[in-house]
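Question:
Now give any protein.
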Amino acid sequence: MTVRIERPAEAVAELVLDRPEALNAISTAQARAITAACAELADDGSLSVVLLTSSSPKAFCVGADLKERNSFDDAALAAQRPVFRSAFGAVLDLPVPTVAAVDGYALGGGFELALCCDLIVASSAAVLGLPETGVGLVPGGGGTQLLVRRVGSNRAADLLFTARHVDAEEAHRLGAVDRLVPAGQARAAALELAGLIASRSPIALRAAKQALRRGSDLDLESALVVENRAWEEAAFSADRREGIAAFNERRAPRWRGTEDAGD
């Protein structure tokens, strides 16, 4: 088993990349496992946050398994392509907020898996990069599109064209990662962040994520229509009624979430 799902806290799931002997180099089998795990998580209405972590202290993920690909001809590489696209797309399309915890190397497809998440927590020991142009490739897990949305076209071009590695401090300065923590603390910090997120309304979290994703590439007028739909989804839910009641009663809310979304 190269991927496993754990439940470290209420409403929080952890998707663990678990191929430490290969530093989580993504094989065809592991890509399929990521897709299957994400499908399971996407169907879980009790979730508010998904963490993406690694069982290896040395690496989050070093990208595609080039040892496996060494024997590929063009037909084999073409056959693997939809499997990989499905895996990255499955992470990107998870309906709840996602947080990647990056410690050690996150290169190529590994960095792209992190970029598929909404937030990235990196430790000071993290090393990130998209080295594909150095081996005759172009990033194919969303890297050319997701990185530019985080850091802008010029900074993305620098990293893409040079294929250079950057340390965690530079990645944080560029905006490629969101939070920087001491070495070895990425998972703990990501879990703390996930707990904070999970304390919010499940309905509102899902609606807010959809508004962010669907509106980001639209003109302002169209994006505000997307936002209004998200507002309506939350505003006319049991969670909104509970949230306002809890505020006025000065107590923690008891969210009903997706189980009562139609109320």
Observations:
- The beta strands are 3-9, 12-17, 49-54, 59-61, 98-102, 105-107, 119-123, 127-129, 165-167, 179-181.
- The chain has eleven helices and ten strands.
- The chain has a mean pLDDT of 95.
